[in-house]
Design goal:
Number of strands of chain B: 2
Helix content of chain B: 40-55%
Mean pLDDT of chain A: 78
Number of strands of chain A: 0
Largest interface: A-B, 48 and 36 residues
Mean pLDDT of chain B: 76
Oligomer: heterodimer
Distance between the termini of chain B: 72 Å
Radius of gyration of chain B: 29 Å
Strand content of chain A: under 5%
């Protein structure tokens, strides 16, 4: 699971020295752990995939500089998401100036095949997935981002730090989002 | 009144907030498990729907960019006391005076390679990234300039005539440039950019640009850019 491998990568990084080539390897290791969660988060932020890939590259180049300057290694997961969030905001600001619209969220992928054991289960999983995604997409922006970060394993305080909102706001956003997602199942 | 925790409190409990109620309430634990399962399902669903490609290409790109960043001249901006650098430069033979640091013409007269104007102007501007000069060549340059006692990392091994203007990748075109003096490597970069622009716009011929930067790069800066470093 990504949460475990992310933590392992961070532990490795803590143990690493500051030799640039060692740091490079550690940054790549963190990249391997966090790229997909970051891309998922940026897609939830309505950043197109190609731009999201560029933002992720920037995040890890900044991480390299951050570590090379011997800055804090505490809560690197929160730091990484926080930088990605700021880069996404800049991306939207640039697009807004150019008069471009936000990217619609990616399609539900209903036609994609799972490794489910049978056709009935396959259909059930697909329906569940489509339902979750459609509710997820319809959430207000802040609720969707909170939920996205929580699904990536961030704690409430970290989510509050990334989004720059209070802990209470995070809790409220999450409760609203969970209610909609689980309520829809009834 | 509902005797159970709200979803808000359940999630806070799952986040590490102590809750005696959760430990003793099967209903709340089941609800929390339902929420966690839903969150896991959401992550899986988003993975399938996102079309995220394999990391291999992105990883290769990141590695290349990290290596480039390591070599780039970002370290020029590190703050090292200028006075210490001037003293070092004087010790090791790079001429530093009121006019600024210049290479020793006997060691670094500047050398060019055969190059056409179209090759020089293939890029819209001169690159500012240091080319990967082999470590043993760098060591040889430092040795020729007598840099043994000082810290070699306080100097940049720089091309006198930049390869972007047809400079040769030869030791006779390399010198250790202090990077915290007023006339430093960043200032020389500006000159290189300016000369490249002038050569490619036809305002200056390539041979003149090569000669002027080789003979006295600071004088060339004053001539083509301005009296003072920007």
């Amino acid at each position: 699971m990504s949460a475990f491998s992310s933590q392992t990568a961070i532990d490795l990084l803590r143990a690493a020295g500051r030799d640039p080539s060692t740091l490079e390897e550690e940054v790549v290791s963190l990249f391997d752990s966090f790229r997909t969660p970051l891309l998922r988060y940026l897609l939830a932020f309505r950043v197109p995939l190609s731009d999201a890939e560029e933002i992720v590259q920037d995040v890890f180049l900044l991480l390299f500089q951050h570590l090379r300057r011997d800055r804090s290694r505490e809560n690197l997961q929160g730091w990484i998401f926080s930088v990605a969030h700021k880069q996404a905001l800049k991306h939207h600001a640039r697009n807004k100036r150019r008069g471009e619209r936000f990217e619609p969220l990616p399609p539900s992928g209903d036609g994609q095949q799972d490794q489910a054991p049978g056709p009935e289960e396959q259909m059930y999983f697909n329906q569940q997935r489509a339902r979750l995604l459609s509710i997820f997409r319809a959430l207000p922006d802040q609720d969707r981002l909170c939920l996205s970060l929580r699904a990536e394993g961030l704690r409430y305080r970290e989510i509050a730090g990334v989004l720059g909102i209070s802990l209470g706001s995070v809790a409220n956003c999450m409760a609203r989002a969970i209610e909609r997602l689980t309520g829809g199942a009834v | 009144m509902n005797p159970h925790l709200t979803d808000r409190d359940l999630l806070l409990a799952a986040d590490g907030e102590p809750s005696a109620h959760l430990e003793n309430c099967a209903h709340c634990r089941a609800r929390l498990a339902e929420i966690e399962e839903m969150l896991g399902g959401l992550a899986d669903a988003r993975d399938l729907a996102s079309g995220i490609p394999s990391a291999a290409r992105a990883r290769t790109l990141l590695r290349a960019r990290l290596a480039q960043q390591r070599r780039a001249k970002v370290w020029r901006w590190r703050l090292i006391p200028a006075a210490a650098c001037v003293c070092l430069a004087m010790i090791v033979g790079v001429r530093v005076n009121a006019g600024g640091p210049r290479p020793d013409a006997r060691l670094t007269p500047g050398e060019t390679r055969p190059v056409t104007l179209s090759e020089v102007c293939r890029t819209s501007q001169a690159t500012v990234v240091v080319r990967d000069i082999p470590a043993d060549t760098q060591a040889q340059v430092l040795s020729e300039y007598g840099i043994h006692r000082g810290r070699p990392d306080q100097f940049e091994i720089d091309y006198l005539i930049t390869p972007d203007l047809g400079g040769a990748e030869s030791i006779r075109n390399l010198w250790p440039q202090p990077y915290t003096t007023r006339w430093n490597a960043r200032v020389k970069d500006q000159l290189e950019q300016r000369l490249h622009q002038m050569v490619c716009s036809g305002d200056l011929d390539l041979a003149t640009a090569q000669r002027d930067i080789a003979v006295d790069w600071i004088a060339a800066y004053k001539k083509y850019v301005g009296d003072r470093p920007m």
